Amino acid sequence: MKHILIPTDFSNNSWNALEYAACFFENIKCTFYVLHVDDLGNSDIAANSFLTINAKEKFSALDKLNETIDRIAMCFPNPDHKFISLEEYGNLIDIVRKTVDEKKIDLIVMGTKGASSIKASIIGTSTGNVITKVACNVLVIPENTITKKPSNIAFPTDFNLFYTYPILNSITEILEISNAKLDVIHVTQSKPNFSNSQVINQAYLNDYLKELFIDKHSFNHILGKSVRDSILNYIAENEIEMLTLVAKNLNLFQQVFFNNSVEVLSHQTSVPLFVMHE
Question: Where is each UspA domain found (predicted)?
Fold first, then answer.
């Protein structure tokens, strides 16, 4: 049984995330927790006073949650899927962390604005904060993502990290569920000159993938001045339908997704982004 958390603000973006998750995990038993977090000031007791809010306002969010669950159950009827609504008040990151711990969440799925072209797009502050501040795998669904299982997944890496069991297990699960091909991508400005640890890490990853996915993976070394542009071009030219990265690999992660500051996270394509945490 998978436990999946889907924060929602009732926007089209958050609906897309819920729809994609229901489709992607169609053959897996799942409990989906659909979470709406509102400002603490909108709770029963506002701003530490004893002033209760209007009853109509109090129940509107819960009504919307229930309507969302009814809608997804109608669009994707599945006896293996259970949807539970959660309504909380306070700080989003604190509540997501608490929910991940209490509900033993395996994956967070979040919607975000996509790109009208491959040029530029900014992941919302909430999604960026969840990716960087919550120790749980996150699947980001841009608004223009087609709801279907990916056939081709790209995994950019610089081979500087040892691939621990949680990382390899996450890769294995996503490939087994999707039955997709994995393209391991390494971008460098000149001919690769690997350190001993990079050689060992690459060989270890290659051996692992050969054992489990012998005909379903490839290693690709790309020469390019910009890591970000090279990866985006590879995505466009090779019909990549999901991108995955290790959150712990901060150097590569920042090169691909951060605009000069760790506070501005850019996702410059409309394909889903799967961020793996250890």
Answer: 1-142
